Amino acid sequence: MVENMYSATGFSHPNIALIKYWGNRDAKLRIPSNGSISMNLDGLYTRTQVWFDPQLDHDKLFLEGHQVAGTAQKRVSALLDRVRNMAGFALYARIQSHNNFPTGTGIASSASAFAALTVAACCAAGLELSQRDLSRLARTGSGSACRSIPGGFVEWQAGDDDKSSYAFTIAPTSHWELVDCIAVVSQDPKHTSSEDGHVLAESSPLQTTRISDTPGRLEKCRQAIKKRDFDALAEVVELDSNLMHAVIMTSNPPLLYWQPATLAVIQTVKEIRTQGTAVCYTIDAGPNVHVICPKEDTDYISAQLNQIPGVQKVLTTHPGGPARCIIDEDESITSKSSI
Ligand code: PMV
To answer: pTM value?
Structure first.
């Protein structure tokens, strides 16, 4: 039936950047100033249904059941325009999206949102794209979304144009049993979106140095993952996070994503490490702290983080798989779907 061909549901995980993307060479196409490496986060997900509907005269976006207009809808429609162009039709879509984790707080909700949208829209449009092309397409919605298309440990090759800028798996989920204990210190949406933050990156006197030093950090991170060398990973991950936040704090105007509890978590992580437990921190564009440790230390680390004043809760996540989609056979699939 024709209507069934035009509805699909996409699932994807957010990812935590171990080597971070901050700043674009081409803001429109989201060609980044530097390559990056991340780990998908199992247990956290975005579920998005896209339904191309001949009755609609514009795209309709619903987030957590509420219709949303403005910038978010424009970004979604821009990605759907690319899909419509490739598929050769002009139908508008109803898009329904749900996250099972806080949105816009530095837990990469835009990454999983645009990855899920990309796979759902392509599936619904009957397009069979390679993982590389799905990654390129997701990148145009939100840069880090390209890293949520492949599974496991993922590298985004910066590239220099639309064709060469995409992400691929460098190690599968089973390669290394790392855990990301996310210390949630705020669930409020951040004051400055990463989209606006990327624009400011160039205004920091530290950005040029950060970018020119990135190939070395990427290589250290690749090697640490390959050899499952936690100490080497911890060193480069914390350095890279500190470098990005140094750029953020010294841009014009300066931004500060941290809150007092963010710093308290950093200090606790350092203390735990001094006492001999393998652990490190990394922070995206938000106040919440991603605390990475080997799987066997999860309960201990999580308990320590939960004791810090200002930590509201700790989410524990393991390496996650790739984005995927299912064709909806009927409307009821949206309430039946789970991940
Ligand atoms: O994809 P964006 O525009 O939401 O940017 C993501 C930026 C960081 O999360 C701070 C770093 C990264 O590489 O994910």
So the answer is: 0.94
